[in-house]
C-alpha cells in the first residue's frame, strides 16, 4: 500500500513546480523551494525502489512494519500539502472565470488581481515551509532504510508457499461431504463423458485457508474416482508455473521414473504418446499464473486423451480458472465450513489428549472460540493447536477475548497464506483492499459506494483517460475474483453485484496491515470510545456508538483524518448536529465524510456553514437525514467534491443556488428528494462532469427564473444509469427537445413523471397535451427500463418507442386518460411489463400485441408467423376498473400463425373487477408457471379450483393463487411466496421450505409464528396498516421490507421494541408517512 501512495505523491510533486515565476522568486529564494522539492522527489524515488521488499517483510518484521507506517504518514502529509495547493489553484481559476463573466469596473478587477496575488504568495510560503519540514522527516526515514537492509525489488522474498501432495488423513477432515459428492459427480457422473471435448477443466476457487487442497485430496482419493480413471496425477504448481517441471512430473507419473529428456518439445511428445486413449485425471494444485501462453502447449499435448478425462485446478483467483479454460458451469466456489463443522474441527485439535471430563468443562467456551474462526478451516486448525497447549479456563477465555490478529500464532501461521494473495496484488489494488479495514466486521457493503469511496481517496488511476468509475469496477472485479469478497447480493435481472461482505479473517488480516491507519471505534453506551493518543495518526475512522458527544477523544485526536464514517445504524445521529461546527474545524484533511441518518428518524437537522472549510472533501453522504431542510451555500465552496448523496432527504426544499461551482461533482444521488424539492437550481447545467443524477425536478422557466429547466440537461452528456424526471406536467415540447436525452448513451433506466409541480392549479393538468411532450423526450436507444407515470393523453405511442430494441422493463402507471394500450408486443427484448391504474381502458386486443390487421390477413396466404412479446416473462395488470374484455384471437388460423408470449412465467391480475375471462393464448400457455388473481371477482370465479369454468384450462399451471389462497402448488421446493391473507399458509404443505414471504393487503400478522425459522426475507407490499405483534420470527429475519406503493399512507406499529429484532440486517420502509417505533 505504501508503494502506491509514494507513487501518487511523486507524480503530484511536479504540479508544485507549475507556479507563477514571480511567486517562485518571492518565496523560493528564502527557502530554496525548488531544491527542497527536488530533494523530496529524489528521496521518494529512492525509497520507492525498495518498497516491494519492505511490504513483503512487514508481516514478520515489526521494525519494517513500523518503518512503513512512518513512511506512509509522511507521504500522506505531503499529499495533503499538494492537494491544498492544487485546490487553491482550482478555486483561483473559478474566481477568475466568475470575475470575467461579471461586469466589474477595471479598478475593481485590478484590486482583485493584487489581492489574489498576495493571498497566493502567503499560501505558497506556507506550503514551502511545510515541504521543508516534511523533507527533514524524510531524511530520517531514508537513513533508517539502510538499517533494515531493504533491497531492490528483484531481491524480494515472499512467504514460502506450502508444497502439497495427494495423500490425506480423512479422519482429520470435518465437513465437506456435500462438496465432495458434487465434485465427484462432476468428475465421474453421467455427464462426465458428454460435451464432445475429451478434456474438461474443473476449478475449485476460494480464499487462502478455506480448504481447496483438502477438498481436492478428498476427491482425488475417492473410490469412485480411482475406479473411473485409468491414470491419476497430482502436481503441486505453487508459485511459478514452470511448464517444463510440470511436464516432467506428468511424464514421471506415467513412466515411474524421472525422465532423462532435454527440451520441452521432446517431453510434450512423450506425454502425448502416453495419454492417447487413456482416461486421465490431472490435479493442478495451487495455480497462480495468469499467463495463458505457459499453459497452452501443455494442454495441447493432453488433448488426445480419452473422452471423460478431467483437469482439476485449485486456485484463489477466478480469473486464473477462466484463463486455464474453465467453463462457468465448472467453476466451484468453495464455501466456508458450517458453524458445527468448524467447531468439530477446532475441538478435535484443542481437546486432543485431554480427558473427557476436562473437555466437557471447556466445550462451551470452545464453541464460542470456533465462532470467531467464521468457518475458515485453517483458522480452526491454528487456533485449535494453540488451545491444545492451554490448560486453564482463564487461558481459553484470554484467547476468546483476543482479536484474531492479536494472537501470535495467528499472525505467524494464519496470515502468511493471506499475505501471499495480498503480495500478488498490483500496488493500486493493495490500497483499495487495505481501505476496507475501515469498515466494521460483518458489514454489508455497497459495491457502488465503495468505488466512490476509493475514488475520493484518489485510488483510481485510469490510463488513456479511462473513467474512474470504470477503473473502480475493474478493481472490484479483480479483488472479487481473487476471493477477497464474498456473500454477494446480485441484481435480479443482469446478475450484477449490488452488495457484498468480507470474510472476518480477511478483515482481521487487513486490520493487522493498517493497525493505526484504519480504525473502527466503538462506544457501547457503557464506556467511551476506545481511543487514545495513538489515534493521532489515524487516517480512516468509523465511529459506532449509541451517542456521540463533543468530547469524544476519537474526534479530538484524529486531526489528520481522511475518512470519517459514522455508522448510523447504532446511534442517534441527531446528537452529531450539536458538535458539527467543532468537528469541521478539526477535520482539515478530510476527503470522505459520512453523516447519513436512518429511516427511523435519526437525522442531522442542520448542516453548519463551517462545512465550507473542508476544502479536500470529495465524498459527502447525507443519506436518510429526513429532517434536513436545506444545505448551506458554503457547500458550494467544496470545489473538489465528487459525490453528494442526498437520498431520502425528503424534507429538503431546495439545493444551494451556487451548486454550479461544484465543477468536479460526478454523482448527485438525490433519489426521493422530489417529494419535497421544488426545483433544481440554475447552475445544474454547469455540472458537466456529472455521471449520475437520480432525480431532476422540472419547472416552467417562465414562472421560476432562478431554477433550471429541462434544457439545462443538454450539457450533461455523461449521465448514466438511472434518471427520473418529475414535474413534466408544466414543461413544453421545445424545452424537452433541448434536453437531448437521446444523446445520453449511458442512461439505462428512465422514469418520466408527468405530474404537475407543487402549487399549480389542477386546470394546468387539464389544459396540457402530453403527446407532443413525450415525443420530444426521446431516450437513447440503449435504454433498458422505462416508466411513465401520470401521462395525460388518450394514446401513448411515440415514434421512438419501437427503436428501443434493448428495452427489458416497462411500467405504465396512473395514465388516467389513456383508453388504448400501446403495441408493446413489438419490443423484442421486453421481459417484464406492469400496467396499472388505467381507468379508461375497457378492452385489450391485438393492438396491444403489436399485430396489424393487414399482417393478419397476409398470414393466411403464407407460411410465415409472427411472435408477439417474444421475451416477456412477467406481466401484471393492476387497478383497471373499467377493463372488461381481453380480446382473444379470432380464428384457429390466427392462432397457428401468431405466437404470443412464448416465455411468459408469471401473470398477475389485481383489482380488475369487470374482467370476464382470460384469452385462449393465456389459458393455453405452457410456459406459464404462476397465475395470481386478486380482487377480480368475475375472473376469480371462472378460475376457482374444480368448480370454475376455466379451471381445466389453467390446471396445468404449477402455482395458482386466487384472492390470497394458494389453490395449487406443483413443486417440490419453493423459496418465495406472495400471499394476501396469512391464514391459508397454515394449510400450506411446503411452509418449512419458505425463506421469503410477501404480504400485499392489510393484515394483522400475529399468525406469522407458524412460519419456520428458515425465513430470512419478509416483505409487506401495499399495506395500509401493519401491526407487528409477538413476532419472534422477525427477530431472526435478515431483511424486513415494508413497501407501500409510491404514496405516503402507511402506518407501521411495532408492539415489540425494535431493538429486540437483533437478526435484521436490513430494514426498508418506503414512503411511510409516520413510523411509531418504540
TrEMBL record:
Domain NB-ARC, first and last residues per copy: 198-352
Pfam families: LRR_14, NB-ARC, Rx_N, WHD_DRP
Gene3D superfamilies, A to Z: 1.20.5.4130, Helical domain of apoptotic protease-activating factors (1.10.8.430), P-loop containing nucleotide triphosphate hydrolases (3.40.50.300), Ribonuclease Inhibitor (3.80.10.10), Winged helix-like DNA-binding domain superfamily/Winged helix DNA-binding domain (1.10.10.10)
Name the record gives this protein: Disease resistance protein RGA3 isoform X1
Entries under CDD domains matching the protein: RX-CC_like
Domain Disease resistance protein winged helix: 438-509
GO molecular function: ADP binding; ATP binding
InterPro entries found in the cross-reference section: Apaf_helical, LRR_dom_sf, LRR_R13L4/SHOC2-like, NB-ARC, P-loop_NTPase, RX-like_CC, Rx_N, WH-like_DNA-bd_sf
Taxonomic placement: Eukaryota, Viridiplantae, Streptophyta, Embryophyta, Tracheophyta
Transmembrane domains' residue ranges: 988-1010, 1022-1043
Residue span, Disease resistance N-terminal domain: 5-97
Amino acid at each position: 500500500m505504501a508503494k502506491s501512495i509514494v507513487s501518487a505523491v511523486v507524480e503530484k510533486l511536479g504540479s508544485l513546480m507549475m507556479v507563477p515565476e514571480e511567486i517562485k522568486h518571492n518565496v523560493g529564494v528564502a527557502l530554496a523551494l525548488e531544491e527542497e522539492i527536488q530533494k523530496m522527489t529524489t528521496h521518494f524515488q529512492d525509497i520507492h525502489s525498495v518498497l516491494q521488499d519492505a511490504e513483503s517483510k512487514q508481516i514478520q518484521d515489526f521494525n519494517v512494519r513500523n518503518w512503513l507506517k512512518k513512511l506512509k504518514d509522511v507521504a500522506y502529509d505531503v499529499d495533503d500539502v499538494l492537494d491544498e495547493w492544487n485546490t487553491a489553484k482550482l478555486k483561483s481559476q473559478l474566481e477568475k472565470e466568475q470575475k470575467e463573466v461579471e461586469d466589474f469596473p477595471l479598478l475593481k478587477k485590478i484590486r482583485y488581481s493584487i489581492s489574489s496575488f498576495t493571498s497566493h504568495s502567503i499560501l505558497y510560503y506556507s506550503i514551502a515551509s511545510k515541504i521543508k519540514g516534511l523533507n527533514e522527516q524524510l531524511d530520517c526515514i531514508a537513513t533508517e532504510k539502510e538499517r533494515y537492509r531493504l533491497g531492490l525489488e528483484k531481491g524480494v522474498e515472499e512467504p514460502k508457499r506450502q508444497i502439497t501432495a495427494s495423500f490425506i488423513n480423512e479422519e482429520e477432515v470435518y465437513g465437506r461431504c456435500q462438496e465432495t459428492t458434487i465434485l465427484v459427480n462432476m468428475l465421474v457422473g453421467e455427464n462426465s463423458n458428454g460435451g464432445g471435448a475429451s478434456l474438461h477443466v474443473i476449478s475449485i476457487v476460494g480464499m487462502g485457508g478455506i480448504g481447496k487442497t483438502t477438498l481436492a485430496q478428498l476427491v482425488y482419493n475417492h473410490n469412485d474416482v480411482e475406479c473411473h480413471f485409468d491414470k491419476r496425477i497430482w502436481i503441486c504448481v505453487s508459485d511459478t508455473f514452470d511448464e517444463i517441471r510440470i511436464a516432467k512430473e506428468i511424464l514421471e507419473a506415467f513412466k515411474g521414473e524421472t525422465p532423462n529428456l532435454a527440451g520441452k518439445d521432446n517431453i510434450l511428445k512423450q506425454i502425448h504418446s502416453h495419454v492417447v486413449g487413456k482416461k486421465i485425471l490431472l490435479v493442478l494444485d495451487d495455480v497462480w499464473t495468469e499467463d495463458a501462453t505457459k499453459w497452452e502447449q501443455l494442454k495441447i499435448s493432453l488433448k488426445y486423451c480419452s473422452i471423460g478425462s478431467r483437469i482439476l485446478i485449485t486456485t484463489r483467483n477466478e480469473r486464473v480458472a477462466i484463463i486455464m479454460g474453465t467453463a462457468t458451469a465448472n467453476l466451484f466456489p468453495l464455501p466456508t465450513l458450517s458453524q458445527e463443522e468448524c467447531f468439530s474441527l477446532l475441538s478435535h485439535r484443542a481437546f486432543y489428549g485431554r480427558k473427557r471430563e476436562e473437555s466437557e468443562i471447556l466445550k462451551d467456551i470452545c464453541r464460542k472460540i470456533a465462532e470467531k474462526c467464521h468457518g475458515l478451516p485453517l483458522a480452526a486448525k491454528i487456533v485449535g493447536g494453540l488451545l491444545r497447549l492451554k490448560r486453564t479456563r482463564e487461558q481459553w477465555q484470554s484467547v476468546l477475548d483476543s482479536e484474531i490478529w492479536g494472537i501470535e500464532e495467528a499472525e505467524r501461521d494464519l496470515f502468511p497464506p493471506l499475505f501471499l494473495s495480498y503480495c500478488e496484488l498490483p500496488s493500486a489494488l493493495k490500497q483499495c483492499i487495505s481501505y476496507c479495514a475501515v469498515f466494521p466486521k460483518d458489514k454489508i457493503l455497497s459495491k457502488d459506494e465503495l468505488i466512490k469511496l476509493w475514488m475520493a481517496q484518489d485510488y483510481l488511476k485510469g490510463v488513456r483517460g479511462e473513467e474512474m468509475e470504470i477503473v473502480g469496477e475493474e478493481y472490484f472485479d479483480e479483488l472479487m475474483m481473487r476471493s477477497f469478497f464474498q456473500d454477494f447480493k446480485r441484481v435480479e435481472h443482469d446478475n450484477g453485484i449490488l452488495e457484498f461482505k468480507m470474510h472476518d479473517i480477511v478483515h482481521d488480516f487487513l486490520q493487522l496491515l493498517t493497525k493505526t491507519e484504519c480504525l473502527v471505534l466503538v462506544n457501547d453506551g457503557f464506556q467511551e470510545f476506545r481511543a487514545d493518543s495513538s489515534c493521532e495518526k489515524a487516517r480512516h475512522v468509523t465511529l459506532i456508538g449509541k451517542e456521540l458527544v463533543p468530547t469524544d477523544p476519537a474526534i479530538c485526536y484524529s486531526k489528520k483524518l481522511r475518512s470519517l464514517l459514522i455508522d448510523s445504524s447504532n446511534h442517534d445521529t441527531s446528537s452529531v448536529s450539536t458538535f458539527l461546527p467543532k468537528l469541521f474545524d478539526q477535520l482539515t484533511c478530510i476527503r470522505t465524510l459520512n453523516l447519513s441518518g436512518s429511516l427511523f428518524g435519526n437525522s442531522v437537522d442542520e448542516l453548519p456553514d463551517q462545512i465550507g472549510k473542508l476544502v479536500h472533501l470529495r465524498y459527502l453522504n447525507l443519506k436518510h437525514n429526513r429532517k434536513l431542510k436545506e444545505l448551506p451555500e458554503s457547500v458550494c465552496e467544496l470545489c473538489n467534491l465528487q459525490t453528494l448523496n442526498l437520498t431520502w432527504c425528503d424534507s429538503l426544499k431546495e439545493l444551494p443556488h451556487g451548486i454550479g461551482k461544484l465543477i468536479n461533482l460526478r454523482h448527485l444521488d438525490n433519489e426521493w428528494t422530489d417529494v419535497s424539492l421544488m426545483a433544481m437550481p440554475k447552475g445544474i447545467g454547469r455540472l458537466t462532469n456529472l455521471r449520475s443524477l437520480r432525480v431532476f425536478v422540472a419547472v416552467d422557466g417562465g414562472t421560476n427564473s432562478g431554477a433550471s429547466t429541462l434544457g439545462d440537461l443538454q450539457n450533461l452528456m455523461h449521465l448514466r444509469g438511472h434518471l427520473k424526471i418529475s414535474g413534466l406536467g408544466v414543461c413544453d415540447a421545445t424545452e424537452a427537445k433541448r434536453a437531448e436525452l437521446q444523446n445520453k448513451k449511458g442512461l439505462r433506466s428512465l422514469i418520466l413523471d408527468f405530474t404537475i409541480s407543487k402549487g399549480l392549479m389542477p386546470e394546468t393538468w387539464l389544459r396540457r397535451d402530453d403527446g407532443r411532450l413525450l415525443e420530444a423526450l426521446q431516450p437513447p436507444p440503449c435504454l433498458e427500463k422505462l416508466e411513465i407515470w401520470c401521462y395525460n393523453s388518450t394514446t401513448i405511442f411515440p415514434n421512438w418507442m419501437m427503436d428501443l430494441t434493448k428495452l427489458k422493463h416497462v411500467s405504465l402507471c396512473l395514465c388516467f386518460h389513456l383508453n388504448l394500450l400501446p403495441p408493446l408486443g413489438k419490443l423484442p427484448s421486453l421481459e417484464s411489463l406492469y400496467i396499472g391504474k388505467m381507468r379508461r381502458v375497457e378492452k385489450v386486443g391485438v393492438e396491444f400485441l403489436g399485430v396489424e390487421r393487414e399482417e393478419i390477413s397476409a398470414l393466411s396466404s403464407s407460411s410465415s408467423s409472427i411472435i408477439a412479446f417474444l421475451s416477456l416473462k412477467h406481466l401484471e395488470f393492476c387497478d383497471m376498473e373499467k377493463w372488461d374484455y381481453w380480446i382473444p384471437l379470432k380464428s384457429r388460423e390466427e392462432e397457428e400463425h401468431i405466437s404470443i408470449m412464448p416465455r411468459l412465467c408469471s401473470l398477475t391480475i389485481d383489482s380488475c373487477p369487470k374482467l370476464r375471462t382470460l384469452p385462449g393464448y393465456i389459458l393455453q400457455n405452457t410456459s406459464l408457471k404462476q397465475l395470481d388473481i386478486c380482487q377480480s371477482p368475475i375472473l376469480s370465479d371462472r378460475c376457482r379450483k374444480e368448480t370454475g369454468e376455466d379451471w381445466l384450462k389453467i390446471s396445468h399451471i404449477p402455482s395458482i393463487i386466487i384472492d390470497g389462497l394458494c389453490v395449487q402448488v406443483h413443486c417440490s421446493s419453493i423459496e418465495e411466496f406472495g400471499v394476501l391473507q396469512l391464514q391459508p399458509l397454515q394449510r400450506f404443505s411446503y411452509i418449512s421450505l419458505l425463506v421469503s414471504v410477501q404480504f400485499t393487503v392489510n393484515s394483522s400478522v400475529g399468525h406469522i409464528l407458524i412460519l419456520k425459522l428458515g425465513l430470512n426475507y419478509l416483505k409487506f407490499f401495499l399495506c395500509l396498516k401493519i401491526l407487528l405483534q409477538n413476532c419472534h420470527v422477525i427477530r431472526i429475519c435478515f431483511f424486513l421490507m415494508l413497501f407501500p406503493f409510491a404514496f405516503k399512507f402507511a402506518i407501521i406499529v411495532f408492539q415489540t421494541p425494535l431493538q429486540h429484532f437483533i437478526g435484521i440486517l436490513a430494514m426498508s420502509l418506503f414512503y411511510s408517512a409516520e413510523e411509531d417505533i418504540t
